[in-house]
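C-alpha coordinates as discussed.
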Protein backbone atom coordinates (compact mmCIF):
# COMPACT_ATOMS: atom_id res chain seq x y z
CA UNK A 1 0.00 0.00 0.00
CA UNK A 2 1.36 3.40 -0.96
CA UNK A 3 1.47 6.24 1.53
CA UNK A 4 -0.28 9.53 0.78
CA UNK A 5 3.12 11.13 0.07
CA UNK A 6 4.02 8.36 -2.38
CA UNK A 7 0.67 8.67 -4.12
CA UNK A 8 1.04 12.45 -4.38
CA UNK A 9 4.55 12.09 -5.77
CA UNK A 10 3.46 9.54 -8.40
CA UNK A 11 0.40 11.59 -9.40
CA UNK A 12 2.58 14.69 -9.71
CA UNK A 13 5.10 12.82 -11.88
CA UNK A 14 2.27 11.51 -14.05
CA UNK A 15 0.88 15.00 -14.59
CA UNK A 16 4.31 16.52 -15.26
CA UNK A 17 4.93 13.88 -17.93
CA UNK A 18 1.44 13.97 -19.44
CA UNK A 19 1.00 17.75 -19.51
CA UNK A 20 4.57 18.98 -19.84
CA UNK A 21 4.26 21.27 -16.83
CA UNK A 22 6.88 22.19 -14.24
CA UNK A 23 6.89 20.28 -10.96
CA UNK A 24 6.28 23.44 -8.91
CA UNK A 25 2.97 23.94 -10.77
CA UNK A 26 1.57 20.57 -9.67
CA UNK A 27 0.46 21.44 -6.13
CA UNK A 28 -2.39 19.51 -4.49
CA UNK A 29 -4.74 22.47 -5.06
CA UNK A 30 -3.89 22.86 -8.76
CA UNK A 31 -6.80 22.29 -11.12
CA UNK A 32 -6.09 20.13 -14.15
CA UNK A 33 -7.74 22.43 -16.67
CA UNK A 34 -7.41 25.93 -15.22
CA UNK A 35 -3.96 25.68 -13.63
CA UNK A 36 -2.26 22.90 -15.58
CA UNK A 37 -3.82 23.46 -19.00
CA UNK A 38 -5.21 19.94 -19.49
CA UNK A 39 -7.53 19.40 -22.44
CA UNK A 40 -10.06 16.61 -22.97
CA UNK A 41 -7.58 14.44 -24.90
CA UNK A 42 -5.14 14.73 -21.98
CA UNK A 43 -7.58 13.01 -19.64
CA UNK A 44 -7.26 9.75 -21.59
CA UNK A 45 -3.47 9.96 -21.44
CA UNK A 46 -3.55 10.73 -17.70
CA UNK A 47 -5.75 7.68 -17.00
CA UNK A 48 -3.48 5.46 -19.11
CA UNK A 49 -0.38 6.70 -17.28
CA UNK A 50 -2.02 6.28 -13.85
CA UNK A 51 -2.99 2.70 -14.71
CA UNK A 52 0.59 1.95 -15.69
CA UNK A 53 2.17 3.75 -12.72
CA UNK A 54 -0.09 2.23 -10.08
CA UNK A 55 -0.75 -1.11 -11.81
CA UNK A 56 -4.54 -0.71 -11.64
CA UNK A 57 -7.41 -0.70 -14.11
CA UNK A 58 -9.48 2.49 -14.22
CA UNK A 59 -12.72 1.92 -16.15
CA UNK A 60 -13.74 4.66 -18.56
CA UNK A 61 -15.58 7.46 -16.78
CA UNK A 62 -14.59 6.36 -13.27
CA UNK A 63 -11.97 9.05 -12.60
CA UNK A 64 -13.29 11.62 -15.05
CA UNK A 65 -17.06 11.04 -15.43
CA UNK A 66 -18.53 11.93 -18.80
CA UNK A 67 -21.72 13.81 -19.61
CA UNK A 68 -21.89 15.70 -16.32
CA UNK A 69 -22.85 18.95 -18.00
CA UNK A 70 -25.15 17.53 -20.68
CA UNK A 71 -28.05 19.89 -21.25
CA UNK A 72 -30.64 17.10 -21.27
CA UNK A 73 -29.46 15.45 -18.05
CA UNK A 74 -31.69 17.52 -15.76
CA UNK A 75 -28.61 18.34 -13.71
CA UNK A 76 -28.05 21.73 -15.32
CA UNK A 77 -30.53 24.60 -15.49
CA UNK A 78 -29.72 28.05 -16.86
CA UNK A 79 -25.98 27.41 -16.64
CA UNK A 80 -26.16 26.31 -13.02
CA UNK A 81 -25.77 22.84 -11.52
CA UNK A 82 -29.05 21.88 -9.85
CA UNK A 83 -29.40 20.22 -6.45
CA UNK A 84 -30.00 16.93 -8.28
CA UNK A 85 -26.84 17.59 -10.28
CA UNK A 86 -24.82 18.18 -7.11
CA UNK A 87 -26.17 14.93 -5.66
CA UNK A 88 -25.19 13.12 -8.87
CA UNK A 89 -21.69 14.61 -8.69
CA UNK A 90 -21.35 13.45 -5.08
CA UNK A 91 -22.25 9.94 -6.23
CA UNK A 92 -20.08 9.86 -9.35
CA UNK A 93 -17.01 11.64 -7.99
CA UNK A 94 -17.02 11.13 -4.21
CA UNK A 95 -13.32 12.01 -4.07
CA UNK A 96 -13.99 15.60 -5.28
CA UNK A 97 -14.89 18.64 -3.18
CA UNK A 98 -18.52 19.03 -4.27
CA UNK A 99 -19.25 21.44 -1.41
CA UNK A 100 -16.87 23.94 -3.03
CA UNK A 101 -18.86 23.71 -6.27
CA UNK A 102 -22.15 23.98 -4.33
CA UNK A 103 -21.02 27.39 -3.05
CA UNK A 104 -20.86 28.64 -6.67
CA UNK A 105 -22.60 26.01 -8.83
CA UNK A 106 -21.97 27.50 -12.28
CA UNK A 107 -21.42 24.85 -14.97
CA UNK A 108 -18.00 26.25 -15.86
CA UNK A 109 -16.87 25.57 -12.28
CA UNK A 110 -17.32 21.79 -12.68
CA UNK A 111 -13.84 21.57 -14.22
CA UNK A 112 -12.39 23.00 -10.98
CA UNK A 113 -13.40 19.77 -9.20
CA UNK A 114 -10.56 17.98 -10.98
CA UNK A 115 -7.53 18.82 -8.86
CA UNK A 116 -4.29 17.05 -8.07
CA UNK A 117 -5.64 16.37 -4.57
CA UNK A 118 -8.85 14.84 -6.00
CA UNK A 119 -6.76 12.49 -8.14
CA UNK A 120 -4.70 11.49 -5.10
CA UNK A 121 -7.85 10.69 -3.12
CA UNK A 122 -9.16 8.66 -6.04
CA UNK A 123 -5.90 6.70 -6.33
CA UNK A 124 -5.75 6.13 -2.56
CA UNK A 125 -9.27 4.66 -2.62
CA UNK A 126 -8.49 2.64 -5.74
CA UNK A 127 -5.36 1.15 -4.17
CA UNK A 128 -7.17 0.41 -0.89
CA UNK A 129 -9.76 -1.66 -2.77
CA UNK A 130 -7.15 -3.46 -4.89
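Sequence:
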Amino acid sequence: MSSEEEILSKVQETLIDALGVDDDEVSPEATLVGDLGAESIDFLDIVFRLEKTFDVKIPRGELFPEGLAAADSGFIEDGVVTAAGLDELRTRIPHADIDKLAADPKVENIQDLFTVEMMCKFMSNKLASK
